Amino acid sequence: MKRRNLLCYTLLVFILGVFSLKAENKKVEYIIAAYIWPSCHDDPMGSEILWPEKTGEWEVIKKGNPRFPGHYQPKVPLWGYELDNDPQVMERWIDVATDHGVNTFIFDWYWFNNGPFLESCLNDGFLKAKNNHKMNFYIMWADHDVARNYWNVHRYKDDDSRLWNGAIDWPNFKIIVKRIIEQYFKCPNYLKINGEPVFSVFSTENLIKTFGSLEETKKGLDYFREEVKKAGFSGLHIQLMTGGVPNDEFLKQIKVLGISSLTLYNWGGPHPEDYIQWGTEAFDRLEKWSQAVSIPYFPNASIGWDDTPRFPHKTQKDVVHFNKSPKSFAAFLQKAKEYCDRHPEQPKLITIYAWNEWVEGAYLLPDVKYGFEYLNAVKDVIVDKKYEKYKK
C-alpha cells in the first residue's frame, strides 16, 4: 500500500511539474512588453489626496485642452473611460493585446507612505482576469518622487512641493521584497528570464538613496537575491531604466550592483516636435549604450509624447506631433526588432511605451482618432512580419 501511495504521489508531482513548466512563461520568439500606467481606478490614497472624483487620473485626462491648431486634446478612448482594475476590462485588454502581438504587460508599481499605491489594477484587474494565463507580466518599481501638482494640477495649482518620495528605507524594502515574491514572482505567468523573475526599477538614483550609498545598495539587492533563491528561484533578474547616453558613474553603478539588463520607459528627452527625429535620436543613443555595456540592453519603441493635460504652461514646442503616425511607430518597432535579431546573445525583449499612458499621449489602446491603428502596427511588424519580406 505504501509503495502504491508513493507511486501515485510521484506521478502527481510529475504531472504538476509538467504543467507548471508549460505555464511558467508563454513561449514566444519576441517578448513584446507594453507598460501599463495603472492610474485610472479608485485608489483609496489616490482619491483622498489626488483625484476626488474616484475615477483616478481620468479626472485629469478629460480636462486636456488643445494648445495649438490640430492638437488632439482631450484624448478620447474608443471604449470609454473604463476603470483599469475591473477584471472584465482587463480580460478585453488581454484578448486584444495577444491578438495583435503584445504578449507581456509591465505594470508600473508604487510604494508611497509605507504602503502600496495603485496596486488594484494588477491585483484586482489583471490577476483576477479569467484569461490572464494568455500573457506574461512583470513589474517596474516606479520609485520616482512626486510633486503635489504633478498628477493633479487642477487641485494643487502651483504647489509643486513634495507629495511623496520615491526613496524608502530598509524596513520598507524588506516588506516590499516579501510582498513582491509572494504576490507576483510565484505567479506562473510572471516573466522569468533563465528562470529568474524580472524586477525592473525606474530610478537608480532613488534606489541608491534608499540605502544611502552604492555599497549599501549592493547589500540591499544581494538580500533581495537571497530571498528570491529561498523562494525556490534560480536568481533575480534586475533591470534598470536608462536615460541620455552612457556615463562613467552609471556604468560603475550597474557593474557594482550586478544589474542584469537595461531598457527605457520611453525614448525620453529631449522631446523634439518631430516624431521621426525623436525616434532617430533615440536609436542613435541605443547604439551608444549597446557598445558601452556587456549586459543586455533591450530596445524600446515609443508611441508619442504629449503630457500637456498635466501642465497648463506647456505649448506646441513641448509636444511630439509632427510625423507622428501608426506607420512611423511601426517603422521604429521594426528597427527594435532588427536590433534584437542582431543581438542573438540576449532575449528578444522589446518594451513599448505604452499600453495606456493617455495622459502622456502614448497608448496602444484604441481611441476615436486612430481606432486600432497602433495595435495593427504591432501586428504588422510582430505577427504578420510585413516588414520582413524586403529586408536587406
Q: Secondary structure elements and their pairing?
A:
Blueprint: H1 2-24, E1 31-36, H2 44-49, H3 58-61, H4 87-99, E2 104-112, E3 115-117, H5 120-126, E4 136-141, E5 146-147, H6 153-156, E6 162-164, H7 170-185, E7 192-193, E8 196-201, H8 204-211, H9 214-230, E9 237-241, H10 248-257, E10 261-263, H11 275-292, E11 300-302, H12 326-342, E12 349-353, E13 356-357, E14 362-363, H13 373-383
Parallel strand pairs: 1-2, 1-12, 2-4, 4-8, 8-9, 9-10, 11-12
Antiparallel strand pairs: 2-3, 5-6, 7-8, 13-14
Helix pairs in contact: 7-9, 8-9, 11-12, 12-13
Description:
- The protein has helices at residues 2-24, 44-49, 58-61, 87-99, 120-126, 153-156, 170-185, 204-211, 214-230, 248-257, 275-292, 326-342, 373-383; strands at residues 31-36, 104-112, 115-117, 136-141, 146-147, 162-164, 192-193, 196-201, 237-241, 261-263, 300-302, 349-353, 356-357, 362-363.
- It is an alpha/beta fold and 392 residues long.
- It has a single domain (27-383), classed as Glycosidases (TIM Barrel, Alpha-Beta Barrel), CATH 3.20.20.
- Helix 7 (170-185) runs parallel beside helix 9, helix 8 crosses helix 9 and helix 12 runs parallel beside helix 13 (373-383).
Kindly summarize this structure in a few lines.
By secondary structure, this protein is of the alpha/beta class. It has helices at residues 2-24, 44-49, 58-61, 87-99, 120-126, 153-156, 170-185, 204-211, 214-230, 248-257, 275-292, 326-342, 373-383, and strands at residues 31-36, 104-112, 115-117, 136-141, 146-147, 162-164, 192-193, 196-201, 237-241, 261-263, 300-302, 349-353, 356-357, 362-363.
